[in-house]
Design brief:
The chain is mainly α. It has seven helices and no strands. It has one domain: Rhomboid-like fold (Up-down Bundle).
Length: 186
């Protein structure tokens, strides 16, 4: 038996997040490369801000934050890579990060970091994995209901969590899932 690098996007992303987190502890100014600034702090004239518009998903505020996100990414990522392919999953992750980063810059004044939007995209996308034409899986409806209720209820707590990022990630996952179900696997 041998160890196989079975999900290159999920594994590489997870490894990058761990390395970035550790380097951020050792070299604190490095953390700023992995936080997208909110609102007026973002400048279209600074190339670094454009990088940060997607790099924020690799930055995390704490070990709990990092490990919570990676547990879902490592659980769901290999299933999604098997179903959709590594390149397509990477593209979905990139689009989700970009859309969420843009919404943060346009509508919020706070910074944003972490892969929670990617996690929610994975959760909704995996719940539609076995969709058939003309059907909406009950499991998808239940997952959406549970996560929406959780985000609405938790939205009343001041816990420094960007609930909108979760909702946008989930919306992206749902849209990707239905779009890919209609196109079929290539």
């Amino acid at each position: 038996m041998h160890i196989r690098y079975n999900a290159p996007v999920s594994l590489s992303f997870s490894l990058a997040c761990v390395i970035i987190f550790i380097l951020g502890i050792l070299i604190p100014p490095l953390r700023e490369l992995f936080v997208v600034p909110g609102g007026a702090a973002f400048s279209i004239a600074r190339p670094l801000d454009w990088f940060r518009l997607v790099s924020y998903v690799a930055g995390h505020a704490s070990w709990d934050h990092l490990l919570g996100n990676l547990s879902f990414i490592l659980l769901l990522g290999p299933v999604l890579e098997e179903k959709h392919g590594s390149q397509r999953l990477f593209a979905m992750m990139f689009i989700t990060a970009l859309v969420t980063g843009l919404v943060n810059v346009l509508f919020f004044s706070t910074g944003l970091l972490g892969a929670s939007g990617i996690v929610f995209m994975f959760i909704l996308l995996v719940s539609i994995t076995n969709i058939k034409s003309g059907e909406i899986p009950l499991s998808f409806i239940l997952v959406v209901t549970i996560y929406l209720l959780r985000e609405v209820v938790m939205g009343f707590h001041d816990d420094q969590v960007a609930r909108f990022a979760h909702l946008i990630g989930g919306a992206c996952g749902g849209m990707f899932g239905f779009a890919l179900a209609n196109r079929g696997r290539s």
